[in-house]
Amino acid sequence: MFSPPLIQKALAWVVIVLTLALPALGQDASEPPQPEAAAPPSEVITVGRIPSRYEDLDKRLATMRKGLDGSPEAQIEAGLPAFRSEVEERTNALDALLGRARFSGSELEDKRLEWAALGVRARQWQTDLGDWASKIDEQLEEVAELVDLWQRTRNAA
Fold this sequence. Notes:
The protein is mainly alpha-helical and 157 residues long. It has 4 helices and no strands. The protein has helices at residues 4-25, 50-68, 72-99, 105-156.
């Protein structure tokens, strides 16, 4: 069964876990939540700064629009027919190889490398699209903050 040192180690781990977990479990759920730090007062644009801030906003939105021109989507979409053809060719070649009575390990390794190259390209496309989506998410967050700022400014006026 278990040796005494193993049991002792297991018991030590149980004691450690319970020591760390019990204080958190013992907290009273009825305790009021700790007050968070007070939020800074909402920024609004003063009337005198509205024209210059509007110009800044216009420039920022133009920069964002230019940044959207570099989408990898069109390039990837343009490469998909050739990619599909390569997959079909490699599939047929692999089927032919595996259909033979004999083939060497180096032939199989060559096929593996060919498929790996396709996988690298597909992963790169996935990374490019993920990076692009993250960039768009960041810009959407920035736009939402700008809309909120201008809405607060409008409400304050």
